[in-house]
Design goal:
The chain is mainly α. The chain folds into two domains: 1-151, Orthogonal Bundle (Tetracycline Repressor, domain 2), CATH 1.10.357.140; 157-283, Four Helix Bundle (Hemerythrin (Met), subunit A), CATH 1.20.120. 75% of the residues lie in helices and 0% in strands. It has 14 helices and no strands. It has helices at 3-13, 16-33, 40-64, 66-72, 85-103, 108-128, 136-141, 144-153, 162-179, 183-188, 194-198, 200-221, 229-249, 259-282. Helix 2 packs parallel to helix 14 (259-282), helix 12 (200-221) packs antiparallel against helix 13 (229-249) and helix 12 runs parallel beside helix 14. 48% of the residues are buried.
């Protein structure tokens, strides 16, 4: 096999788009928490920790899904023969402890967030993907990201736990959006995650309702002290614009051919929502 094809296989194993967006979000969260340029050393440890965590989760996902992918996505790196299953597992087993080692210099809170965030992704890969509880590991894991980033560069604040209030609908929407293109093919292979059990119509309705609920949570937070209301409202409006664009582009999720363009808009909406909330705590 050509070296270039093998290299593309290794890159695909790492799920570059979601990994890059997660690392980018962590960096932006750290900038907000530091109220400017964070200490470069601590920022580097943070980004390395998040990157290694995401690599571990992504490569383990492909390892665990290798039989499903052989039936539904034969072009993916393991079924296509560009990466061996043993190598994918080795990458995951190496990257996970590296993620925690990189979080060690950042303090106890950041380390705890790294543990929870990484463990949630691993739990999804190993146990929860094919169950009705498939969204639960994400709801537990992803709201740790702003806490992880904040604690890396600034003292922890109890208000950061609001990330779970905001994260629950956001993560549910993103999980359903990520599952949506493969829904029918996965169901045919016996996968029974949350979206598969809901069925196409109910899953689609819940997807859009979840993003709407996240915007409403932002607006509701304006009633609490210690939040910049204008920032929250601005983030809610911009997020709604991005979600509306994704809704229109994909015709409500029906036009699957347009989903590769609509999905990044939803990821952008999630980042904008989270950044707006964090920024409201420091303005």
């Amino acid at each position: 096999m050509a070296a270039s094809a093998r290299l593309r296989g290794y890159l695909a194993l790492l799920h570059p788009f979601p990994v890059a967006m997660t690392v980018l979000a962590a960096g932006l969260f750290a900038v907000v928490a530091a109220r400017g340029t964070p200490p470069l050393g601590r920022l580097a440890w943070l980004l390395a920790s998040v990157l290694a965590s995401q690599i571990a989760i992504a490569s383990l996902n492909d390892y665990c899904d290798r039989q499903l992918d052989a039936a539904t996505k034969p072009w993916k790196p393991i079924p296509a023969g560009r990466v061996s299953a043993r190598v994918a597992l080795a990458v995951a087993m190496s990257a996970a402890p590296i993620a925690l080692l990189c979080a060690l210099p950042l303090g106890a809170v950041a380390l705890a967030a790294a543990v929870v965030g990484t463990a949630g992704g691993v739990a999804y890969d190993l146990r929860f993907k094919g169950t009705v509880w498939s969204v639960v590991p994400f709801v537990i894991a992803f709201p740790t990201l702003p806490i992880w980033a904040w604690a890396a560069v600034a003292p922890f604040e109890p208000r950061l736990l609001e990330s779970y209030l905001l994260g629950a609908p956001l993560v549910t929407g993103l999980h359903l959006a990520d599952t949506w293109p493969d829904l029918e093919a996965d169901r045919a292979q016996g996968v029974r995650g949350l979206a598969h059990r809901l069925g196409p119509h109910r899953a689609r309705r819940l997807l859009w309702a979840a993003f709407a609920a996240a915007a409403l949570v932002l607006l509701a937070l304006t009633a609490l002290p210690g939040h910049a209301s204008g920032v929250l409202v601005g983030a809610a409006v911009l997020s709604a614009v991005l979600v509306g664009a994704a809704l229109a582009l994909s015709r409500g999720g029906v036009a699957l051919a347009r989903w590769p363009l609509a999905f990044p808009l939803l990821v952008g909406a999630a980042i904008v929502t989270s950044l707006g909330w964090l920024a409201s705590l420091v303005v």
